[in-house]
Structures are given as structure tokens and as C-alpha cells.
Amino acid sequence: MAHAMSDDQVAGELKKMTAFIRQEALEKAKEIQIKADEEFAIEKSKLVRQETSSIDSQYEKKFKQAGMSQQITRSTLANKTRLKVLSARQELLDDLFDKARGKLPEYTKDKGKYQELCKNLILEGLYALNEEKVEVRARKEDYDVVKKAIEAAKDEYKKTMKGREVKVSLDEKNPQPEGCSGGVSIVGTGGKIDINNTLDERLKLLETDALPMVRTSLFGKNENRRFVD
């Protein structure tokens, strides 16, 4: 027959049960805390990796953008510098030919040399036209010199062409226009062909034909040019 427990015994059992339940609760709470810490650590690590990856991606993007911006800036500066150099070179060349143009009248002061020059210019036209009759146009102030040059040119032409003669007349009705620096024009085929051998025109031709050589003499050979003028 079981004996009824006394109040003290009941109190002791309740105390034991309470202690057991409390211990179970603490252990359970500890397990929950550990699991929560582990999950937090995992989630934290995941977030850190994501943020790190995002930062790396943004840095790489900004680095590339900065690199492209630097290249564009460098290219722009290089182009501006190149254009300034080309502009300065062109100004120098223009100034060179302007000075040469300003000196053209000096070639007409020495009448002997100028007459020889006009003779050669006329001869060049005679050979080019290869006609029996041509006209020469000159400045009014050069008429005396050019008339002598015509006769000299006719004689030399006859010798060179083995006796073949050419009729050359000075067209006094159509002198060279005001501002012409000198030289002559040789007109053939009834006025249809005009060989402009004035000093101004010859300088223009020289400016075009000799420009590459002048450019090389002044600035040196351009290694970047694939083709030569």
C-alpha cells in the first residue's frame, strides 16, 4: 500500500520538476541561440560577399570609365596639339610664299636678266603650242624688253627646230592686268589656248609643285605619311 507523500516531499518533487524544466528550457534556449548565431554568421558572410562583389564590380566599372576618359582626353589633347602644329606650319609656309610674292617685282629691275627670263618663258610657250603663229601678252611697261625677248626667242626656236620659223607678235591691245608682277602669256589657236607664264602664275605652280619639298626641307620627313606628294 502506497504511502501518501508529505507536504515536504511534494514540495521537493515540485522543486526537482521545476529545476528540470528550467534546465531543459535553458539548454533549448542555448541551442536556439547557437543556431541563430550560426545562421546570422552565414547570412552576414553572404551579405559581405555580395557587398564586396558589388564594390569590386563598381570599382572595375569606374576604373574602366576613368581609363576611357583618360584615353579620350589624351587623344583630344594630341589632336589639338597636332592641329596647332599644322596650323603653325601652314602659317609659316604661307608667310614664306607671301614674301616670295613680294619679291617678284625685283626680278624685273635688271633688264638684261629679265629679258633673258622672258625669252625662256616665250620659248617654253612656243614649244608647247607648236604653231606657226602666236601672240605674246605682257605688261605695258615691259613692251620694250619683251619685243627684244620675242626676237631672241624666234631665233633660238628656228635653230632648235631646224629652220622652222614661227611668227610671234606682241598683243598690245590686251596687256597684262594691273597688279601683274611680270612675265608673259603666250596665246595660240586664235586665242583659244593661253599659256600663262607670268611670274605670279609660275609662283603659284611652284607653291603647288614644290610644297612637299619645301615642307620636308623646313620640318623634316614625316614618318607617319604613307604616301609622298
What does this structure look like?
By secondary structure, the chain is an alpha+beta fold. The protein has helices spanning 7-102, 111-129, 143-160, 199-209, 211-219; strands at 133-137, 167-170, 183-188, 193-198. A 4-stranded mixed sheet has the order 2-1-3-4. The radius of gyration is 52 Å and the shape is rod-shaped.
Key terms:
4-stranded mixed sheet, 67% helix, 229 residues, alpha+beta, 9% strand, 5 helices, 4 strands, single chain
Low-confidence stretches: none
Distance between the termini: 132 Å
Mean pLDDT: 83
Shape: rod-shaped
What is the H/E string? HHEHEEEHH
Q: In angstroms, what is the radius of gyration?
A: 52 Å
Report the β-strand fraction as a percent range. Answer: 5-15%
The structure class reads alpha+beta
Per DSSP E runs of 2 or more residues, the count of β-strands stands at 4
Strand order of the largest sheet: 2-1-3-4
Helix content: 55-70%
Describe the largest sheet. 4 strands, mixed
Quickly count the helices: 5
